[in-house]
Amino acid sequence: GKLFGFRLARLRSPTRGAALRARARVSRGRTRRIAEYTLSGHPHHGLSATLCPARLFVQIFDCVWLLSPLHALGAMVSSLAAGLAAVRLTMLKPFGKNGGGRSATEGDAGQLTRPVEIFGLSPESPKNIIVSSHYSLLSFFPLTLYHLFHPRKSFANFYFLCIGFLQLVPAISITNGLPTLWGPLALIVLVDLVLMANEDIARHKADRLVNGQEVTILRATGGGGGGGGSGASAGTELGGSVSAAEWLDGTWADVREGDVVRVDSHEAFPADLLLLRSSTGRECWVNTKPLDGETDMKLRLAPKVFESLLKDVDVGTDEGEAAAARALPALLRGKVLCEQPNNKINDTSAEVRLAGVPPALASEDNVLLRGCQLRNTDWILGLVLACGPDSKVGFRQGEPMNPSKPVLSDSVVNLNLLRQALLLVPLCLLGSTVNAIIIGNYDDGQPWYRETEARGFGQWFLNSLSYFLLCYSLIPISFYVTRNIIFSFGRYFMSHDLTMYDEEQDEPARVRTMVLLEQLGQVSHIFSDKTGTLTSNRMEFRRAVFGGVAYGCGDTAISRSLGKANDAPRRAAPLPPYAGTTAATRAFVSFEEAESDASIWDVLSADDADGAALRECLVALAVNHSVMLEQVGDAQIPSASSPDELAFVAAAEHFGLHFEARQTARGVVVLHDKARGERHEVQLLEAIAYSSDRKRMSVVVRLPPALVASIGGGCADRIYCKGADSVLFERLAPVAATAKGQYGSQEALSDLLGEWAEVALRTLVWAKRELPELDEWRAKYREAFNNPSEVAAYKSGDPCLITELQEQLESGLTLQGATAIEDKLQDGVPEILADLREAGTKIWMLTGDKVGTAKNIACACNILPQEADVLEITTETFPVLADVKTTKLLEVQQTLEASRPMPTRLARLGARLGVRSKLPRLPHEELHKQTAALDGEFPGLLEVRHALIAFQKKLSDQMKSEVSRLTASVNQVAPDGNDVPCMVIDEKGIEYCATVCGEVLTAVSNSCRAVVACRARKDQKAQMLNMIKFGVPGSCCLAIGDGANDVAMIKAGHIGVGIIGKEGMEAVNNSDFAIGQFRFLRGLLLVHGRQNYRRYATFCYFMFYQSSTMVFSLFLYSLLCEASGALLYPYFIFDFFTVFYTPLALIVFSVSDQDVSKEESAHTPHLYSASIQRVYLTSSGFARWLSEAFYLAVLLAYLPAAAYGWPEKTHMGEHEDPAWSALSFTAYNAMVIVVLSRLALEVHSWTVLEVACWTLSILALVVTNLMFSYWYPVPFPTVPDSQWGEFNNILAIMYSQPAFWLCLVLIVFLALAPALILDWLHVDPTSPLRNALKAVASTRAAQALRRRTTEMQEVNEAWLSIPSAKQSAASRPNGEANVGEGGGRSVGGASAADAELGRGSSSKPVEYRPSLRPMSEVPVESKKTSFLRGKRKNKQRGFTFSQNDQSAKHVLGLATNEPKDLKAKHRPGR
Question: Can you list the alpha helix ranges (DSSP code H) found in 452-599?
Fold first, then answer.
């Protein structure tokens, strides 16, 4: 009642007997507001504020639609099919959800409130089935029809359905009261139904295949089992005993909670299981690839409470199975308290409560998730904890995970659809008004054939409706269904493209969101991860520091590209007999030594202290990892979740210490000392796993005496820790700083690590500590881990005793050394990135690596070009950024966001309709207040903002000069020194700049040709993408990555691409497209993306062209007939035209046409520039095609009448009367031929298939002419005999008349003449071969530059208005930063005078490191490319840039001519 001012509870639907509730959730801005309408009982008011009128109208419209009979039918039938008692339909869940599953919120995860009784069948336990299908046999038609005719989901279908109802009204019908439109509409809906049914049948088949897998179940047959429902207490009371159980052979669908199941080797787990027992005792090996894509084996352990309890259970034989069936019901009396269902696959909590046994906790290491596979273990017994929709993998599987991404081209299409709809209004009003004027001008009364027509406003209104029925086809009826068919073919061809097939992984390209196929041709920004995306994620051990001595001199691909290769002669001495690796690990070691350097082999063979210390370093490499060994035939294959660990294990083996086995039941790692021929069993006491927050991994071990003696003696209990230098250096004991060796100190080692990072080596620091008092620490640690509250706090990241104990153990460490491994670039990465930059796409690399590593890899990948002018905002150039805490910036950000004004009502309405708009700017006063507060605490921050503003002003001046130059003369040579602007920024730089100067950061970064973000967190990757996505109008952002840390960025991008690699399937599962290698972007963007976008534009134009041609010709002919609404074509021509004549040729063109070959398109990036500028699909293109349609309509409506001499004198021979049938026959034949010919003019590559389709379309016209002429009467009730009869024998009459052929030739020639002339003159603005006219291009570029310059000036003025910024600007001449001569631009640097401008004059000037130096200029030659269109060569017309005119092309986003010498040397520099 509060919501609308009346009680919705009193509204009842006459077609509904049951109550119907509809929920509509509305999200606006940052505030979530819920409006819930209840049609029975008392309404629930979930709205916290009054809705705006536009939104109120939308919600009331939803309510009215909910009361419609169609909606009621769909709701009732779907509910009956689901077996529900009440009729209920949720608007936000159109396909329903898996039935039977318990609902749970994310907050329920981790709370042990769900009891599972062992051998007890819970009444609330869902069936163990996963339903991915959307429909059942009963609900298919109601639900699909509901979605296909919903006015907001499928407006076009709803629109044409209403048109059919209007055609039933005799007073306004122009089809004799027959709904002729329902014929083609039914065909279109049938195609949609077939496609939807085909997809759902495939889902049903997959569901039956999964749910029908066989499994062996141990189920209770008697006793006091049962209970254990959600209402059961979570206390200590246990369920009743079970007297007996029996083994059953069933399927996955037969499994229930509380059952015990047996799973054999290489079988998948039917549900989420708690491991009870395995063939090897307590442990088993699991392959989780179906769940997360990782190929390594993972160890799972049964809770210790079952180790002694079930030690005699063995189901490997028939006798053992029978004994287990008798013994297990007595042994397993109790229940397991579980968390509520959730989808956190890496986090599981449970508590085992058995009779007579203390409670024990279980974690994710004790649980076997549904779908994973048992490996290297003969069999396991597992207790079913969660079934079907309650399992981790099945939780909420039927619900959409992500909202659909907007299609950028839809904004242009929808705008022109709206224009077409608005055009209906003046056409209807004009036609009815002209009719009223003509009737009113009859002086002596109306003619006899119009005597029944009334006059007045009522008749005028009815005539307007009649004209609406005449012109409704301005909106193409088959647009969406034809588009879906085209996209389906496009998806098939893309997924079967062999050039994008990864043979190594046996993975083709995957298309997960086919509506974005054409959007691949509009990518302006690419946001890429580094590791696993640009690099191969295949690690090789190259160098190391042990005992303060550096070993290894191997070069990397980056060092060679930067000219830093080590040319020293390599050591040629043979390796010791024990050196080397097996075939399984050989690929992970590439270790070389220089003759002049110390040899690691000499130190290893010595029995002194140095040799002992080096051997202990190898022990750390061999034990501090999570590598598993899988037996494959006669060989053991190592597998690990991280390829880095494989490189460490391989390195230890190469130097003589072989990781031979991992005996998890005993907690032992077996090491083989190949040099001494000894085997050592190292006990693994504790392991503290690696996490992105900890950035380190530690293991606590107990070494055998022989191994302790070989490494120099000492305590047997030790901790070995590896991690990032920034984390481990602060945990070293003070004595570590005085270690011997050249690199034994922390400072020297840090400098060496920086040098290794410069050549893109991944470094880790290793440290150790002896633990003489380990037992006391372990007792506290075990006690903390047995406390559920401590475990919950530890998993949630809150402070807890577990974390304190870990920190206590990982302190006071002794430095052992460091390692360096190489992650090689993927094949073809530099080449494709160079071509994409040449096309005008801006490349962003976002990585968590160090600044030096990221910059050098960016140089090697051609992301940072040779002529780069780099602005570097990092903690290296601005050390003050390291002093600003993240929590401080987060507080400032929250304060600023709270002060931001709410969007206007117009903006909110636009957001509701899908129109993006910028957020209101932050208040100047609050921004100044927060900025001044930060400046007062950290005075050096002033220099960061000044560097941004100075760089922005420099770019603005360059843009002004480009505007002047382009306006004066396109071919004017630009002055020398136009370097490519680029930016390097790190984690702290992103945090600060995005918080207090986000608009400046957006303007500067968008003006840069490349941006490298270092040390970026996963949330910062998405933040940087959203900065461009929402801050740069017209941008199209593609995000590409391969790991879980890239998911947020992939979801945020307009297009998300996942790399199918070694870091799991999270990125692929959340992407729109998936490819096996980064280089496949060439085919994805330059080939398929560009061609799909170009063809889709022509498809849209042509759909509007053919529908407008018919409507305009009907309207003009009606005006010729005194605006009486007379038809030029019979009713059935409407259906034949859009169903039989043109669709086949249009679909084939939209799928297969190519303006250039695939090879030329893939290696000519200039072609992609037109796509980025979006010149194919524009409103001006629609206007041009509509003007052609109107011109053709004039010819069709009037030329036949003039040719036949009507109305004064005829030229029809013995048939003196030029009948309506003659005009109609000539007009529709000419219309079909012209429309098909007009489409043929757009074809670039004629193939056998296209020729056949055009031939079949013409044959269809001939066949239908024969049918109209000689097939009479017609047995179809939808076709009136009066109209069909007019065409009786028309073929013989018209084909014999010269006037018909003359008229046909004239219409075809005159209609196609404008397009042919424009093509001959090369002034077609939608063609890539004539798009780059100098005048048009220069005007467009100048306008873009003026707009961008204006925006940057506004931002600059806003920031210079802040007092601190004014002071900084006033202190420098011209507002520029220091620019060193000779190429060393220190944009990020600051002078002593500038440093004193901050608050607190005592701050000392800081000498900042220079940014990346400009590299040697490489001569660039402009390319002259000719393109083939049909069989005629056309010269490329476009910008003519000089050799030194690179900056214009970079700033404009146009094609640039980069050097093809990809092996050009890069000058080193920071």
Answer: 457-471, 479-495, 557-561
Amino acid identity, position 685: L
Q: Which residue has the tokens 């005048």?
A: 1335
Q: Across all residues in the chain, what is the average pLDDT?
A: 75
Residue 842 pLDDT greater than 80, yes or no: yes
- Give the residue carrying structure tokens 């996209």: 487
Q: What number of CA atoms fall less than 13 Å from residue 305's CA on the CB side?
A: 21
Closest CA to 590 of 554, 614, 627: 554
The one-letter amino acid code at 1447 reads: S
The predicted-structure confidence for 87-132, as pLDDT tens digits, reads as follows 222 222 333 333 444 444 444 445 788 889 888 876 677 888 878 7
- In 3D space, the residue among 1274, 1279, 1191 whose CA is nearest the CA of residue 1238 turns out to be 1191
Specify whether the CB–CB gap between 1070 and 821 falls below 8 A. Answer: no
CA distance 1232 to 1262: 11
Cα distances (angstroms) measured from residue 689 to each of 728, 763, 1329: 15, 18, 58
Beta sheet of 260-264, edge-to-edge order? 242-251, 214-223, 260-264, 379-386, 272-278, 367-368
Annotate 632-683 with DSSP letters as a single string: ETTEEEEE-SSHHHHHHHHHHHHTTEEEEEEETTTTEEEEEETTTTEEEEEE
How many residues are present in the chain? 1470
Beta strands in 708-856 (DSSP E): 717-723, 761-770, 814-825, 842-846
What are 643's two structure tokens?
Answer: 């390829």
Given a contact cutoff of 8 angstroms between Cβ atoms, the answer to whether 563 and 1467 are in contact is yes
> Could you report the per-residue pLDDT of 642-700, keeping only the tens digit for each?
778 889 999 999 999 999 988 877 889 999 999 888 999 999 999 998 876 788 999 99
Instruction: Work out whether strand 525-528 and strand 510-511 pair parallel, antiparallel, or are unpaired.
Output: unpaired
Which of 106-115, 253-262, 368-377, 417-426 shows the highest mean pLDDT? Answer: 253-262
The whole-angstrom separation of Cα 606 and Cα 608 is 6
Burial of 787 (0-12, 13-18, 19+ CB in 10 A): middle
- Which has the closest alpha carbon to 1114: 1231, 1203, 1212? 1231
* Other Cβ atoms within 10 Å of 604 Cβ, number: 20
DSSP string, 754-776: HHHHHTTEEEEEEEEEE-TTHHH
Which residue in 1129, 1281, 1288 sits closest to 1193, CA to CA?
1129
What confidence score (pLDDT) does residue 936 get? 85
Nearest C-alpha neighbor of 980 from the set 849, 870, 1094: 870
The answer to whether 1246 touches 1259, Cβ cutoff 8 Å, is no
- Cβ(224)–Cβ(144) below 8 Å: no
Both tokens assigned to 1184: 């041009």
For residue 796, give the H/E element and its range.
helix 788-796
Name the DSSP class of 1083.
Answer: I
What is the Cβ-side half-sphere exposure of residue 1118, based on CA atoms within 13 angstroms? 29
User: Strands (DSSP E) along 772-905, which ranges?
Assistant: 814-825, 842-846, 868-873
Q: How many whole angstroms separate alpha carbon 948 and alpha carbon 1360?
A: 12
Q: What is the pLDDT of residues 698-733, one digit of tens each?
A: 999 999 999 999 998 899 999 999 998 888 998 988
Could you give the maximum distance between any two Cα atoms of the chain, in Å?
128
> Distance between CA 1188 and CA 1209 in Å, rounded?
30
1216 closest CA partner among 1225, 1208, 1228: 1208
| Pairing status of strand 297-301 against strand 31-38 | unpaired
1159-1173 pLDDT tens trace:
999 998 888 988 888
Report strand pairing: 814-825 vs 549-551: unpaired
Amino acid letter for position 783: E
Digit-coded pLDDT (tens) for 294-332: 666 788 889 988 988 888 888 888 888 889 888 888 888
